[in-house]
Amino acid sequence: MVKKSQHGGTFIGFIMGLVVGLASSLAVAIYVTKVPTPFSNKNQPRSSEQDSAESQKNKDWNPNNIFQPKAPAEGPATAVNDAPAKPVDAPVNKPTAETVKSEPAKVESRPTVTADPLGDLTKAKSGLTTAAPTPTGSDPFDYVIQVGAFRSTADADAQKAKLALMGMDAKVSERDQGGRTVYRVRLGPFADKTSAEKIRTRLETNSIENTLVRVQR
Predict the structure, then answer these.
(1) What is the C-alpha separation between 44 and 34, in angstroms, rounded?
(2) What CATH number should be reported for the domain whose range is 117-131+140-216?
(3) Is the pTM of this model over 0.70?
(4) Extents of the domains making up the chain
């Protein structure tokens, strides 16, 4: 009875193993027919062009290309001149010796500056100028007209301004008289007595007292 049960279990195990083996073989066959393998074309003959193309591809193949960026395509090279164009200097006309000689020298005229601008202004308006002393053989003296002697500079300057309005250039001078300083207002000097008398006449016409003083040259 024990031998019969062992024989039946062995037969059932054999049948199950056969079924599993057939199923595995069928699955492998289906997989091989559906998926192409790299060994399928191994025995097919290849042309010389295919061999040379594959050898050139294997020669230029670099495994690191996938990690390197592709270089940009180079366009046609154009010659660029970075250096800026040098400007052309305009011709400069240099003066020659003849042109320098022909041009006259320019002299700047400067106005004469005096210590009494008010007197100069009145002279220009009236046209009266004080006669400059000229040496004469007959009269060895110069003539001065004194228009006043004052104890303060303010009075002397006021008299000088009054004469300037008449077109006469007066001068103020200091002198010690009796221990006091006197400020004298004078016109001149005049080279001759005739010129001095003409000025005195104008002063008297304007009611200005004056004195003619003769000074040795």
Answers:
(1) 20
(2) 3.30.70.1070
(3) no
(4) 117-131+140-216
